[in-house]
Design goal:
The chain is built from 13 helices and 26 strands. It has 529 residues and is α+β, with helices and mostly antiparallel strands. Helix 1 runs antiparallel to helix 5.
């Protein structure tokens, strides 16, 4: 009897699996047919499109958790040679944030290497700076991220799936915005795309990946396909919206397209100088959201370590600014580390938990037996708080500006199972304190101050001050030593000078979350000019 029951259960499981496999194939087959059919899609040799793009960065808002910053408006022309798998994209990028500027450049993406001709970012690498005219090989991280998004947005992804049925499986139904979509998971290398289908048309409606975001932890990243039109017998989604956890952060409008237009081979050729030794596509835990969204605001450093240019520096390091006061430098984003009698205080946790783990390791080596008791976050922007979980996991109290406490409580309550640098754990009980005006952290011997200042960059922004060293610390509103001072105060610099006066402090120097260290007196002397 038991054997008969067991055999019945096994039979039902086999039938169920076979049914789901058939359902998966039916969904993919129907989508391919709706897009033009196997014969038509298989006949595509080149794809050419023109499009406009609008992008927003959700974690550069003025108010923590508030309205996204409009980042950039662009146009591009792209062409793909299907046989070789090479794509060229010519960009005109008009950035609105963090400052208005326009970059015109081209990308060539092949299966083995990536290349950029022109200036595409404020965060230029050593290779880009030294090349005449400016150009550089893509990092393996950027190459992998670009390849993923090209594949996700390709009209041929569904044909690829149909030809590789062993790599997909039925994903049941997924509800988004009150709509239930039948879905299929498709494994492509170390990536899984979840393709959701429109019940009425059979066309793909959403293509999802599960990513890691340095602020919100585990996130969904969806390409939403709409406004299908026929281009040379192929159905193409002409409106493409990227959603991060359901929030639209990019919108692409295809304005023109051609199938099988002739493409000159030299347009798709990476110069030998840049292809030789170029990084291969990165594998494993690629920080996709960092790579993609730093490009939204034109500040991406195209390196295989997110924190610093591997061609220009050996890495992060500590620089002593005063006894027991260390500036964490060597990368694009800096922290300040202050020794107290029996503990440490750190200002800012930039980029990632990998970065923070380095700082924590260096702190243990430099100041053995002294844990980080306080992490002071100058403001909520993703590039300066992306490594806060590593400090929370060590038991640090998080100090933030007035009004930002609830935002960080939500952040630390979010799951982060995809974090490559930190084991998952419950951080929701992390102590968070807000600075309404001034906060003094003391061990009875040394004091460290945090001051809330009015400013045009981010609500709840703090500056730091170490009185016995007469050293201030500021992030974004001033990058000391990064560039000569202007002839007159800009609004961010004026906010810093006003904040120092209101606090009644007398800094001799300031260290920065960017830049290096500079005397404060020349900046203060600009007041009134």
């Amino acid at each position: 009897m038991k054997r008969a029951v067991l055999m019945l259960v096994i039979s039902l499981v086999v039938v169920s699996c076979a049914t789901m496999e058939q359902r998966s194939e039916d969904l993919v087959s129907r989508a391919v047919h709706a897009m033009g059919g196997t014969y038509t899609l298989a006949g595509i040799r080149t794809l050419s499109v023109k499009a406009t793009v609008r992008e927003w960065e959700p974690e550069q808002s003025m108010v923590a958790g508030g309205e996204m910053r409009f980042a950039c408006e662009s146009t591009f022309e792209a062409v793909t040679d299907v046989g070789s798998g090479v794509t060229r994209i010519n960009w005109v990028r008009k950035f609105a944030y963090p400052a208005p500027r326009t970059f015109t450049f081209s990308e060539i993406v092949s299966p083995e290497a990536g290349y950029v001709a022109g200036i595409d970012s404020n965060g230029r690498t050593k290779q880009s700076l030294e090349s005449k005219p400016p150009a550089h090989a893509m990092s393996g991280l950027r190459l992998a991220a670009t390849q993923r998004e090209l594949r996700r947005g390709s009209s041929l992804l569904l044909l690829e799936m149909l030809r590789n049925p062993e790599r997909f499986s039925y994903a049941s139904e997924i509800a988004v915005g009150g709509v239930a979509y039948p879905a299929v998971d498709y494994r492509a290398g170390d990536q899984t795309f979840t393709v959701m289908f429109d019940r009425g048309t059979g066309l793909p409606a959403r293509i999802r990946t599960l990513d890691y975001d340095n602020v919100w932890g585990d996130v969904t990243y969806d390409l939403v396909l709409a406004d299908w039109q026929t281009i040379d017998d192929v159905r193409v989604a002409t409106t493409r919206t990227y959603e991060l956890n359901g929030r639209p952060i990019a919108e692409i409008k295809i304005t023109d397209g051609k199938i099988n237009a002739r493409v000159a081979a030299e347009r798709l050729t990476i110069p030998v100088k840049f292809k030789a030794g170029a990084p291969r596509p990165a594998t494993g835990p690629v920080p996709y959201q960092w790579v993609i969204r730093r490009q939204f605001i034109g500040t991406y450093l195209d390196s295989d370590v997110a924190s610093y240019d591997t061609r220009a520096t050996s890495g992060l390091r500590l620089v002593e600014l005063a006894p027991g006061v260390q500036h964490v430098v060597g990368g694009t984003h800096h922290s300040l580390l202050v020794e107290m009698r029996d503990h440490l205080i750190v200002f800012d946790a930039p980029v990632s938990d990998w970065h923070s783990n380095w700082v924590l390791g260096a702190a243990r080596a430099k100041f053995p037996g002294k844990p980080v008791k306080y992490l002071v976050l100058t403001h909520h922007h993703m590039d300066h708080v992306g490594g806060l979980r590593a400090y929370a996991a060590q038991g640090a109290t998080i100090v933030v500006g007035k009004g930002n406490g609830e935002h960080f409580r939500r952040v630390l309550a979010a799951p982060f199972t995809r974090n490559p640098d930190l084991p998952t754990r419950d951080l929701s009980r992390t102590e968070i304190v807000e600075v309404a005006d001034k906060r003094v952290l003391t061990d009875g011997q040394r004091e460290v101050h945090a001051y809330l200042i009015e400013n045009p960059h981010a609500a709840g922004l703090l500056i730091g001050y170490v009185p016995d060293a007469r050293l201030g610390f500021a992030t974004d509103i001033w990058s000391p030593g990064a560039a000569p001072l202007p002839a007159k105060l800009t609004p961010p610099l004026a906010a810093l000078v006003a904040g120092v006066k209101k606090a009644g402090i007398s800094p001799v120097k300031f260290a920065g979350g960017h830049g290096s260290v500079a005397d404060y007196a020349p900046l203060a002397a600009l007041e009134g000019k």
